[in-house]
Amino acid sequence: MAKKRGQRRALARPRRCEPRASGAARLGALGAAALAPPCRAAVRAAGKAAGPREALLGLVAAMEENSLGNLQQRAAELECMAEVLLTGEQLRLRLHEEKIIKDRRHHLKTYPNCFVAKELIDWLIDHKEASDRETAIKLVQKLLDRSIIHHVCDEHKEFKDLKLFYRFRKDDGTFPLDNEVKAFMRGQRIYEKLMNTENVILQAREEEGAKYERTFMASQLIDWLIQEGEAATRAEAEQLGRRLLEHGIIQHVSNKHHFMDSNLLYQFRMNFRRRRRLMELLAEKSRLMPESHDSPFCLRKQNHDHKKHATFLSGKRLIRAEDYRSVPDSQVIWNYA
């Protein structure tokens, strides 16, 4: 019996005596699992080096940073979509003015508000929007891929250099109005109302030592949205502001905060009125916009020694700030509305 008891003791697994993890440490482990790999390592390191309270604060900061990063990436993707929509709309209006878009007949049937593919390619080359026919086809294909145009009978999914009829979906009411497009259209309407009315909302202001053109304070925009009937309550207006930020319409001036009812400064992420060139559709997004996604109204940090050389982005090119102020808006932006 004694021999058997000895064998059982030898086979028994020894108990491990380890201290139970604190609540903050367990929370940190759970939070770290939900973060991107670089953030997980940072949270674990902070939990080992600091106490429970510091670990919890580090977790919150890391999760907020990770959330803002994902938000900015999504906003950049939606901004790219918005640029295509704006480019297509500007082209549509120009083609109407040039009578390229008109009612046409084929086999005794009339097709309203359409254009001939071959004629459009000729027009793009003549107006320096494309260097050759192959490039022109690629440009218009971008619009077709985004469901901005389509073949009048939906028989061709590719844009061809032939005598085929195509039409802008906005001209026949078939343009798909998903949530992203609705948010974009509402943001554009708010932008135009702000730009076309005399108000003190859009002003040059400073935040953390940097000066920005045409900024608005979140709390003032909320007041204006309620006044203009865009929202009924402050909570509804704040939710609208958050939606505009998430869809790449507006941004915090230094991309550090989501939209909230506060004195923080925000800007429109893009200049809706800037005239787009079709060739921009073929350019890589990283080349068109800086990695920091600066607003087109962003003045660089200034000091007294270099104030003369302050510049800010207007669309995709740099303009001297002092030169911009002396140039009428009509010469800088193209109002296609």
Write out key terms for the chains shown:
four-stranded antiparallel sheet; alpha+beta; 48% helix; single chain; 14% strand
Verbal overview:
This protein has 337 residues and is an alpha+beta fold. The protein is built from 13 helices and ten strands. The chain is elongated and about 75 Å long. GO terms for molecular function: GTPase activator activity; guanyl-nucleotide exchange factor activity. It holds the Pfam family DEP. One of its GO terms (cellular component) is plasma membrane.
Strand and helix layout:
Layout (H helix, E strand, L loop, with lengths): L1 H10 L11 H11 L3 H13 L2 H46 L4 E5 L2 E8 H10 L6 H13 L3 E3 L13 E4 H4 L6 H18 L6 E5 L2 E8 H10 L6 H13 L3 E3 L12 E4 L16 H4 L22 E4 L2 E4 H5 L3 H4 L5
Antiparallel strand pairs: 1-2, 2-4, 3-4, 5-6, 6-8, 7-8, 9-10
| Global mean pLDDT | 75
- What is the total tally of β strands? 10
Major sheet = 4 strands, antiparallel
Radius of gyration: 28 Å
Helix content: 40-55%
Number of helices: 13
Shape: elongated
Biggest β-sheet: strands ordered side by side in the sheet: 1-2-4-3
List the helices and strands in order. HHHHEEHHEEHHEEHHEEHEEHH
What is the compact description of this entry?
This protein has 337 residues and is an alpha+beta fold.
